[in-house]
From TrEMBL:
Protein name stated in the entry: Translation initiation factor IF-3
Molecular function via GO: ribosome binding; translation initiation factor activity
Alphabetical UniProt keywords: Initiation factor, Protein biosynthesis
InterPro entries named in the record: T_IF-3_C_sf (IPR036788), Translation_initiation_fac_3 (IPR001288), Translation_initiation_fac_3_C (IPR019815)
Domain Translation initiation factor 3 C-terminal, first and last residues per copy: 18-103
Family: Belongs to the IF-3 family.
Cellular component aspect of the GO annotation: cytosol; membrane
Pfam families registered for this protein in UniProt: IF3_C
Origin superkingdom: Bacteria
Record keyword Protein biosynthesis present: yes
Length: 106
């Protein structure tokens, strides 16, 4: 009886709860800041978490939504070996979002 409870307790400890982490960017995010955000995305994916990337448009940036889409596509290419796109980029008001999930481990 006790051994069974102990095994169940150990199995529960070893479970990994998948969380959705969010990274916020702007279309004008520069190279240095982009690299920092990219490292955070890769870390989250390696831990087995999902990552929601939110691109916030302000003011006149709304007229250049293709720049935001290009930035999300660049992220998609940069994280290709660690994660896959679970939800394609789409506009939600003034924000464009994309969901990345970790690649399955063999």
């Amino acid at each position: 009886m006790f051994d069974l409870k102990q095994k169940q307790k150990d199995a529960k400890k070893k479970q990994h709860q998948v969380q959705v982490k969010e990274i916020k960017l702007r279309p004008a995010t520069d190279v240095g800041d982009y690299q920092v955000k990219l490292r955070a995305i890769l870390k989250f994916l390696e831990e087995g978490n999902k990552v929601k990337i939110t691109l916030r448009f302000r003011g006149r940036e709304m007229a250049h939504q293709q720049l935001g889409l290009a930035q999300l596509q660049k992220i998609e290419v940069d994280v290709a070996e660690f994660g896959v796109v679970e939800q394609a980029p789409k506009m939600e008001g003034r924000q464009m979002g994309m969901l990345l999930g970790p690649k399955k481990k063999k």
